[in-house]
Every structure is written in C-alpha cells, then in structure tokens.
Amino acid sequence: MSKISFQIFLGALFILATGAIILIYGLNEEHRMAVQSAAMHGRAIEQGAALFEQQCSRCHGIQGTGIPGLCPPLNDRAFFDKRLQEVNWSGSMEDYIVATVSSGRLSSTRPQTFPGQGTPAMPSFSDRFGGPLREDQIRNLAAFIMNWEETAETVTVPEPPSEPAAGTKIIGTDITQTLPAGDAAAGEKLTSTLGCVACHIASNVGPAWRATGSEPGIGSLAAQLIHDPNYTGHATTPEQYLVESIVDPNVFVVPGFSSGIMPGNYATSLTDQDVADLVAYLLTLK
Ligand code: HEC
Ligand code: HEC
After folding, report:
1. What percent of the chain shows pLDDT beyond 90?
2. Rounded to an integer, what distance in angstroms lies between the CA atom of residue 160 and that of residue 164?
C-alpha cells in the first residue's frame, strides 16, 4: 500500500468511526430523552397534586371524588369515559381540563346536583383572568387529574331530593328557629353522605370534631366558643352555634382556618330535619 492510499484508508476509517460514535450517541440520546421526559411528567404530576390540594380539594374532595350536593367527582370512571361526549367537547381531555380550570364556570351545567359555591360556580384560576395560577401550573393540574384515568372507579352521586320530605322545610339562615327533634344516628350518616367527614374527621382541612389530647370535641367546644371574646356570631346556645356554623359559616371563622372553605350552600340545600340530626350527632362528640 502506498503511503498516500494508506492515509486515505486511515481517513476513511476515521470518518466511519466518527459516524458510528454519533450513531450510538444518537440512539442513546433517544433513550435518555425518554427517561428525562418520564421524570418531567412525574414532577408535573407531583406539582399538580400539591396544587390540587390547595386550590381544588375543598370543592372536588380530597381524593377528587367530589362533594355530594356541591361539586362533581373528577376521579371518576364516568368523567373519563363519558363526560366529553356529554358536553359535546371535540378536543382532548387535557384541553377540556385546562379550559375549565383556566376560565372557571360561571354557572354549573348540572345545577341540581353540583351547584358549586354560588356565582361563579367555579372561580377562574388562570392569571389571564385574574386567577392565582400560571399556564404551566394548570397543565400540571391536568397531568395530575389525567393520572387518575387508569384507576378511576365509578362514583355514585346521591340524587338530591327534589322536594323536602313532608313536614320538613329548607333550613335557611335563621338560627333562632325551633328545630324538629334530632336523631344523632341519622346525623352521623349524613356527615358521610354529605362529605363533612372528608374535612372534619378524615383530614384537618376543617376543625377536628373529635376530642384530641388537649382539645375537647365539637360538642363541648360549641358551648365554650360562644363565650369567647373573639366570637363574632350571634348564637346564645351550643345548638345555635352548630346551626350557625352550618348555615352561615362566614359569620364566625374558627381561628386558624380560612373562610370560604366550609361549603356555603347548606342553608339552601339542607332541611331543618337534616340540620337537627347533624346537630344532635355533633353534640355527642364531647
Ligand atoms: C368553588 C368550588 C370549586 C373549586 C374551588 C374548583 N371547582 Fe372545579 N368545578 C366546580 C363546579 C361547580 C363545576 C361544574 C360542574 C358542572 O358544570 O356540572 C366544576 C367543574 C370542573 C371540571 C369539569 C368537570 C366536568 O365533569 O365537566 C374540572 C376538570 C374541574 N372543575 C377542575 C377543577 C380544578 C383542577 C380545580 C382547582 C384548580 C377546581 N376545579 C376548583 C367547582 C369548583
Ligand atoms: C371542604 C371542607 C369542609 C366540608 C365538606 C365541611 N366543612 Fe365544616 N368547616 C370547614 C372549615 C375550613 C371550617 C372552619 C372555618 C369556618 O369556621 O368557617 C368549618 C367549620 C365548621 C364548624 C364549626 C367548627 C368549630 O370547631 O367551631 C362546624 C360545626 C362545621 N364546619 C360543620 C360541618 C358540617 C355539618 C358539614 C357537612 C354537612 C361540614 N362542616 C362540611 C370545612 C368543611
């Protein structure tokens, strides 16, 4: 082999080797990018979960299973399988979630079952509409919600009675009215079907009802709080305090908690019998 052709041979070998290195790196890069995008997706879901707890759980429930009489479940088979068709949405689920969360809902599409908290039924969250969240945060929330798709079960939503049962009436906000006799066992059941337990027993989103080490239960606290110098409500008896907390929650906000979290629609959705039962049950938690 002449010197020149040897150099050409070496040059060709070098080019081949470089090509091979680039090829191997390129293949590896694809894998590396896949790993990285999975990690990014994981982080998006994590951030979405934290945002959900702060911004959404008070209406859609801690696990996304909704709050009966208030807001729809999202961690729900029917939401993933049927909802887009029901509302005639031709885009993707992600876009539906992002659009709903960004602009909120002025009025509910199912006002009988999920009235939300007044007007708007759901506030706008996008900073473009004066809300607290950026576009990327809303995308993370969508990633978190869509993460439920694989495991979501069917949530059965109790139908609200269209008319109060005979002999009962919608409670309203008068805390001095005489209530029918309450049934503590029926009241305890209501705290599950109405979702009160999610905030008051299963989590500390609302004040604990059960006695803890130093604090008595709500049944005893009610009697103490009406004499507290910081109490801003109008109740003169423990019963009235409990009724007031349910039908007019913002007149006195329990220290350490924020207003607007305890659902505000009970005065117009519960009957006097429901509230009497709830109060009878709460008074047993000394
Ligand atoms: C004040 C209560 C409230 C808060 C807070 C709230 N929502 Fe909603 N949300 C509602 C109501 C009410 C609806 C409308 C139900 C309807 O139209 O039938 C709704 C609808 C939705 C829907 C569409 C559900 C469907 O079945 O069509 C999504 C998705 C949603 N909310 C996500 C969120 C997320 C994410 C957050 C937190 C950033 C949030 N919501 C905060 C009350 C609330
Ligand atoms: C989404 C969470 C949430 C749900 C659901 C909820 N609450 Fe509350 N509740 C709160 C928060 C937060 C407070 C404290 C702020 C305030 O006083 O408004 C509170 C306060 C109260 C108080 C006063 C507690 C005290 O220590 O003085 C009572 C009584 C009460 N709720 C009863 C109920 C009943 C009954 C239900 C169901 C019919 C219910 N709550 C559902 C969050 C919730």
Report:
1. 60
2. 10
Indicate which atom in ligand 2 lies nearest the CA of residue 250.
18
Which ligand number lies closest to the CA of residue 228?
2
70 touches ligand 1 (CB under 6 Å): no
Q: Which ligand is nearest to the CA of 263?
A: 2
Task: Measure 119 CA to ligand 2 centroid, in angstroms.
Answer: 20
Would you say residue 2 has pLDDT above 80? no
Burial of 38 (0-12, 13-18, 19+ CB in 10 A): exposed
Mean pLDDT of 213-227: 94
Q: How many whole angstroms from 197 Cα to the centroid of ligand 1?
A: 20
Surface-to-core class of residue 121, CB atoms within 10 Å of its CB (0-12 exposed, 13-18 middle, 19+ buried): buried
Cα gap 255→79, rounded to integer Å: 37
Average pLDDT of 8-34?
Answer: 81
Ligand at shortest distance from the CA of 86? 1
Q: How many CB atoms lie within 10 A of CB 180?
A: 14
Write down the pLDDT at residue 258.
Answer: 80
Is the per-residue pLDDT at 107 higher than 90?
no
CA of 88 from ligand 2 middle (Å) equals: 36
